[in-house]
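Annotators were shown the component list below and the corresponding predicted structure, then asked to write short factual statements about the assembly.
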Amino acid sequence: MRPLLSATGVSKRFGGVQALDAVDLSIAPGHIHGLIGPNGAGKTSLFNVLTGLYHADTGTVQIDGRITSGVPPHEIVAAGLSRTFQNIRLFASLSVLDNVLVGAHQSGRSGVLGALLGSRAARAEQDALRERCAALLDRVGVGAHALRTASELSYGDQRRVEIARALAATPKLLALDEPAAGMNPSETDALRELLQSLRDDGLTLLLIEHDVKLVMGLCDRVTVLDFGRCIADGTPDTVRRDPRVIEAYLGSGEPHTEPAA
Amino acid sequence: MPKRWQLVAVGVGLLALPWLVDAGLGVAWVRIVGFAALYAMLALGLNIVVGYAGLLDLGYIAFFAVGAYLYALTGSPQFGLHWPLWATLPLAALLAGGAGALLGAPTLRLRGDYLAIVTLGFGEIIRIFLNNLNTPVNVTNGPQGINQIDALSLGGFSLAQPFQLGGLTVPPAYLVCYLFTGLALLVALASLRLEDSRIGRAWQAIREDPLAAAACGIDVKRYKLLAFALGASFGGVAGALFAGVQGFVSPESFSLTESIMVLCMIVLGGMGHVWGVALGALILTALPEALRALGPLQKSLLGQVWVDPSDLRMLVFGLALIGMMLLRPHGLWPRSAQ
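Structure shown to annotators:
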């Protein structure tokens, strides 16, 4: 089957640091794909290349057959990849629902004239989007807070809103940058259930995570980065036993435990 | 949607406004209310750029100047042109909008203070340009400015002449007040609609977090450019009306101080909140006029004028801004959370 996302030979250098060194990544449709590695391994750099925030020095990225290396972030959303951020980046002073409506930006087409004249088409479009976004908030479990200001919500709920906002763009691939960071165990469990249900609905997910237990339990396939290189790629079970992976997570001998920060 | 009785109430209120103001404060204040409405239009245009899209623009008065000079050049003996208002107003919006895009395009990568400096420079360039465009070909008449500008007129009725309606005589100041408050209301309505639209939300997203906005699929550059152009076109319309009611324009009406004054209206009233911005425009237009009364007051109480009211103006204004920053940092009438 053709991969939904494939990156080949992606390199990125920041001054003297080779953040990414000829990294390959291939994500099959319908999978939850994990991206792990010790701190500074290049996970977030790769993520930012895939989502268009950085431009790779070399290498190409294809999403659903469309080459997306070098194109601006909004075109990558159009190609079908949405993302969340490691440090939640909601639009703090907007309402929760408005945050998700911004996520649905590309689903609308009404322009300045439609807005100024309050045209029937523009209003109908807005109502339909509002309904869809409210349903998404229900889906991730924060529907009750739709009209509150985003910054008032608890940390865990803000993460959920961010996921709803990314889903509003109707992506084929949802990329989550450390979604469980800062969550307590029960919030992490709820997150796991949410991600599983999204996959069951046919969505493909890319998951960067520090919580190795979560990754191993959830992912169909895992890629491990270390010092900007891809050191292992396979099912959670094979990756878990890979000696290079064990070495990368020095000291513990088992990738189960958190790597030392 | 507003209910019908609300629309009727607003209409009746607007019709009664100049009569009430005249009866209470005198006809001079009718003119001041008209100017406040004009400044509200201008401030609402800047509010799109600063309040919605979060782009600090210190050269906004340049677009006001573009509209004013367009009206002046196409409706005065300067070139012998006397174009009607229905032609000038859309053209002013278009030309100022183009100038806005022109300013926006090279500044798309700039943020915060860097953007402020470039826009400030742009504002000054336009003013100096107008100031010097009297040689080799005399276009703007240089520092002397352009006078004998045609008064505003609508379909043959000049707003500088009293209007006879049955037995009722409506003075010119009332007519101008009607036109400006009506247009300001339209601009406010347009702002509200933009705010609660796909476009307005894209602007607000850019204001809050440009990176996250881009990750949501918003073409950040395009929407910044749109904010500059649309905001500028509001300013251009206000400028044309300004020229029509003043009958005279000169470059010194478009100095940096004016840009800052319009920005203050927004900050004082409540950035991003349409009614707050309108309130800010009303207060900052009326305040200097109200302080004028302090001159005669000093004379009658103390025998002579100790403090020139125009000096007092900046003092009161400065104190008001400091007090506001301490007590109501989001403006007098901020946007309340839903």
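Statements collected:
1. Residues 94-164 of chain A form one domain.
2. Residues 120-140 of chain A form the longest helix (21 residues).
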